[in-house]
């Protein structure tokens, strides 16, 4: 059955539902929005419609008399069709919703369907201006949401897009991926995955060690999604006082708590139409996890002091350096929330697994550091590059960035505009000081390799070698905390007395004090 508006300017949509009343309701709603609507009551009828022509959107109920809406979805994905699929699931069926997204649904709706939400999800699925080329459809169970940049009426096979090569992407998606410097196989695979998974509503969990570039990855997911013109709202879940979490997330009405002098919107409202990036999600207290889960499931939030809930249309991307599955096991993270957030996982590898990216990364990071006004870019000497290539860099790109900042700040500008000051005024200094290894920093890669957990040569003097390791860790923690001993101790699970004792034993003093600085050689 087909129904067309008088002047079709909208999407061509196939509605699959066996309940005539609901089908009619969906049809009328869509027709009023200017869409062309085709309807089917069974999987078989839907297959016939799909064999005859292509659509922009397929909206299917999950349970149909002769099969599941998911079957249709899987067939569309397997055939690399470009239709965006919206699955309607029964109320409270979190498994179905998550499974639909994992299978490649663009989005899902829960019964009873809220018509405003219905219209908004359809509008999201049908983005006319600047529709981006689709990621490649595949059969591994990863979500794929093929787009159709031309919205042509050619047969499905001709409407396929080329795979997600960066070249095919338009700004700002391609720009966001380009900001993630690195062409190592590990980074290429991360970027490819981001381009592939970005374009549905499926929640993404970015996992990786601290400083690996998780926020950059989250920004790239947003920039490659149909929501790229909407806001990207980053939130550090670990930095908000527990008593303010609810107001910060969901908003608050004037007078709803001490200090609420005016109405204020929360992160969810601020991210409407865009992406809410929940960084350090593993640090969210359990009570707030329950509220977040509800907001994600219902897609509605209630500001503090408000009686009514309001609908929010946001995509959730979260990030953590923690092993969330282990946190679930330990009872510190809700399993249902983990399940809800981790529909798609993007893993950002540590720098040690992509050392070939170091030269390009150094160049890009140095280019961000303001110059001396001469216009000459900061450049590394060969020796400095050798040092960097050999350094452990456990702090990943952020550590590299800090190291370069320090080197530029402390360096005496030479011809290159970049000084010869040793880059490693902390970590490798400990090794150079160490008679157990007795080599100069940067002389070869061996001294730093000696610090690497992967090296297999034995130290000549275990005690001194262990001291050197301990010194390196302490100096780094002190460095990262601006030489705040209490904060450094907390980072390392020590108390103030313990860190003081260790610093004194190893002769670590604050740079600038009368005694030799800990990094001095
Ligand atoms: N591939 C990359 N190319 C260029 N810069 C990068 C890259 N990865 C990270 N950076 C830079 O390193 C710094 C840390 O990155 P980011 O904040 O994204 O890491 P993170 O994993 O979110 O850190 P944390 O776990 O501490 O929140 C930022 O300044 C970022 O711009």
From TrEMBL:
The keyword Nucleotide-binding applies. The modification 4-aspartylphosphate is found at residue 61. The keyword Protein transport does not apply. It holds the Pfam family HTH_8. PROSITE patterns: RESPONSE_REGULATORY, SIGMA54_INTERACT_4. Residues 12-126 form the Response regulatory domain. InterPro entries: AAA+_ATPase (IPR003593), AAA_lid_NorR (IPR058031), CheY-like_superfamily (IPR011006), Homeodomain-like_sf (IPR009057), HTH_Fis (IPR002197), P-loop_NTPase (IPR027417), Sig_transdc_resp-reg_receiver (IPR001789), Sigma_54_int (IPR002078). Residues 130-175, 435-457 are annotated as: Disordered. Residues 445-457 have a biased composition (Polar residues). It comes from the Bacteria. Keywords: ATP-binding, Nucleotide-binding, Phosphoprotein, Transcription, Transcription regulation. This is Sigma-54-dependent transcriptional regulator.
């Amino acid at each position: 059955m087909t129904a067309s508006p008088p002047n079709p300017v909208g999407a061509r949509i196939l509605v699959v539902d066996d309940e005539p009343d609901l089908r009619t309701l969906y049809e009328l709603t869509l027709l009023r929005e200017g869409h062309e609507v085709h309807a089917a009551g069974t999987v078989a009828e839907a297959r016939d419609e799909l064999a005859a022509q292509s659509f922009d959107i397929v909206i299917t109920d999950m349970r149909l008399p002769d099969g599941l809406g998911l079957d249709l979805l899987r067939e569309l994905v397997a055939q690399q069709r470009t239709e965006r699929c919206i699955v309607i699931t029964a109320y409270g069926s979190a498994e179905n919703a998550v499974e639909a997204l994992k299978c490649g649904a663009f989005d899902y709706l829960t019964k009873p369907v809220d018509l405003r939400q219905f219209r908004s999800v359809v509008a999201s699925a049908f983005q006319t201006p600047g529709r981006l080329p689709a990621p490649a459809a595949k059969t591994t169970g990863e979500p794929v949401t093929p787009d159709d940049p031309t919205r042509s009426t050619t047969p499905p096979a001709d409407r396929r897009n080329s795979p997600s090569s960066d070249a095919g992407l338009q700004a700002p998606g391609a720009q966001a991926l380009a900001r993630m410097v690195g062409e190592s196989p590990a980074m290429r695979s991360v970027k490819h995955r981001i381009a592939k998974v970005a374009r549905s509503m499926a929640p993404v969990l970015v996992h990786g060690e601290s400083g690996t570039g998780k926020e950059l990855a989250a920004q790239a997911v947003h920039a490659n999604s149909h929501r790229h013109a909407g806001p990207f709202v980053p939130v550090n879940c670990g930095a908000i006082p527990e008593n303010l979490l609810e107001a910060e997330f969901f908003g608050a009405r004037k007078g709803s708590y001490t200090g609420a002098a005016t109405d204020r919107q929360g992160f969810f409202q601020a991210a409407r139409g865009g992406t809410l990036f929940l960084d350090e999600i593993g640090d969210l207290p359990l009570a707030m996890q329950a509220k977040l889960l509800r907001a994600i499931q219902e897609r509605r939030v209630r500001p503090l002091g408000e009686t009514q809930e309001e609908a929010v249309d946001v995509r959730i991307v979260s990030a953590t350096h923690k092993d969330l599955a282990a946190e679930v096991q330990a009872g510190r993270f809700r399993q249902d929330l983990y399940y809800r957030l981790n529909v798609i996982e993007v893993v950002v590898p540590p720098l040690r697994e992509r050392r070939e990216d170091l030269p390009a990364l150094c160049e890009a990071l140095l280019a961000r550091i303001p110059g001396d006004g001469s216009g000459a870019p900061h450049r590394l000497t060969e020796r400095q590059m050798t040092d960097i290539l050999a350094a452990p860099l456990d702090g990943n790109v952020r550590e590299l960035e800090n190291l370069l900042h320090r080197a530029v700040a402390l360096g005496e500008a030479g011809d290159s505009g970049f000084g010869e000051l040793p880059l490693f005024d902390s970590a490798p200094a400990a090794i150079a000081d160490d008679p157990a290894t007795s080599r100069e920093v940067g002389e070869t890669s061996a001294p730093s390799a000696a610090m690497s957990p992967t090296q297999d040569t034995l130290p000549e003097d275990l005690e001194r070698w262990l001291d050197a390791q301990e010194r390196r860790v302490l100096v780094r923690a002190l460095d990262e905390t601006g030489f705040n001993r209490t904060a450094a101790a907390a980072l390392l699970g020590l108390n103030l007395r313990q860190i003081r004792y260790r610093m004194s034993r190893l002769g670590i003093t604050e740079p600038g004090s009368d005694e030799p600085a800990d990094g001095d050689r």
